[in-house]
Amino acid sequence: METLSQALLDDQPDANIIHINYNLTDFEDIMDYRSLEAYVEGYFVPSRQNYLLIDEVQMCAAFEKAINSLQARERSSISKCRTAFPTSRHSSAKRPPYLRYGTHIRR
């Protein structure tokens, strides 16, 4: 996601990047959809192009509700959603996919 974040800033220096990485303990307080939405709203800058980048989004309980709510408020339009499945032949088929989520948030 760092590469994507840098590419966005190279293309749009005034862009506001909201980057959440659930691998870091810094984000333990936003592990549910309500706190995720509040966090995004808190960092949203109406006068700038906003982008939301989330690593390991599946770690946030019901994250889809936050994204849907942002879309309903016309705060976002999904522009990038990547899912990468485990590639090891020893990994369980029941294991959830690793998700990386990126969305463009409207001004």
| Regions with little confidence, pLDDT below 50 for 5+ residues | 80-101
- Summed over residues and divided by their number, the pLDDT gives a mean of 76
The rounded Rg comes to 14 Å
Judging from the principal axes of the Cα atoms, what is the shape?
Answer: globular
Strand order of the largest sheet: 1-2-4-3
Describe this protein's structure:
The structure is a single chain. This protein is 29% helix and 27% strand. The chain has helices spanning 2-11, 33-43, 63-72; strands at 16-21, 50-55, 76-84, 98-105. It has a four-stranded mixed β-sheet with strand order 1-2-4-3, with helices on both faces. The longest helix is centred in the middle third of the chain and has 11 residues, at 33-43. It starts with a helix and ends with a strand.
